[in-house]
Amino acid sequence: MHELLLALLLSQPLAPAPAQPESTKPAKPDATAVSKPDTAAKKPSDSHAIGEEVITGEAEVKINDTKIWFPPQIDPFTPVNNLLTPESYVLDEALYQSVDSMTIPHHFIHSSYLRVPVERNFIYGDIMVFLPSFESRVATWELVVANSLGETVRRVSGKGQPPAILSWDGKTDNAEAIATGEVYSFTFNAYDAQGNQTRIPGQPQRINGMVYNQHDEWVVAIAADQLFSGDGTQLQEQAAERLDEAANIVKEKFKKEVVVYVYSEQEKLSSERCRIMKSELGRRVVLPAEALKAAPRFIPGLQPKFSKVEIHIL
After folding, report:
1. Worst-scoring range by mean pLDDT, 2-16, 119-133, 180-194, 280-294?
2. Right CATH number for 123-206 from 2.60.40.4070, 2.40.128.270, 3.30.1370.60, 1.10.8.60?
3. Which distant-in-sequence residues (6+ apart) come within 8 Å of 273 by Cβ?
4. Which one is predicted more confidently, 104 or 249?
5. Are 75 and 81 spatial neighbours (Cβ–Cβ below 8 Å)?
6. The model's pTM
7. Which of 292, 231, 284, 282 is nearest to 257 (CA)?
8. How far apart, in whole angstroms, are the C-alpha atoms of residue 36 and residue 76?
9. How many other CB atoms are found less than 10 A from the CB of residue 154?
10. Which numeric CATH code is attached to 209-313?
């Protein structure tokens, strides 16, 4: 019995020894320890996200992409373009001639069918008269055009405030064209409701040449002293430009006939000037045979300033 109990006791495992309590004394800090940031949340340097590709090492690479090159923006026509801007005016007539020579074949440059570029010396169409503005109310107004003798040749009137610009067709009250070579004065009169007058005189103007339509024919009227020197038959240096301009109008308006009238106080002078005018126009314009005619018009006692040349284009 005792042997059986002893065998049972020996077969039981031994109980572990009781655990010793840990010391609550704080550990002594290491003097060589260095505070480091917590790297537990960081991704290890040898790990990468899915899809990443790590390339290490060195390699020589040559870039062959074409570089963008901007040439300097220099316009050789800038000096000429600056002259042709709307803020300036070109008074060099040689420039117009050179432009024509560059755009027209050379064997056509001197053709009588071409329009010759000239500066306009004549009045075309209506004459624009600029009227003053008034702060006070205007009841009635009038524009009076008078010749060198003080005779009224045209009177234009209206009621209320006057317009800024008044258009005058260059005709008298009798619907006749004003005379070339004559000096005309412009006087503007304004009246208020009480009849008080404001008179504003304008600068006198001499009419050297006009182009107008009368009785279904075009007329180019030129004062004789704009073409001939004094009372003779010698053409002035500036006459060539005026004759070129007259020839341009003939080319544009010609239908069947051109008649040149020369007015002077001497028959011989009128006849000689007719011959010169017919020769000069015939040299500038190509017309059918017998389409260019000239007729002297001598008027005894005609004042020299009223001597003129009229070219009637039918």
Report:
1. 2-16
2. 2.60.40.4070
3. 224, 228, 233, 262, 264, 296, 309
4. 249
5. yes
6. 0.62
7. 292
8. 71
9. 19
10. 3.30.1330.60
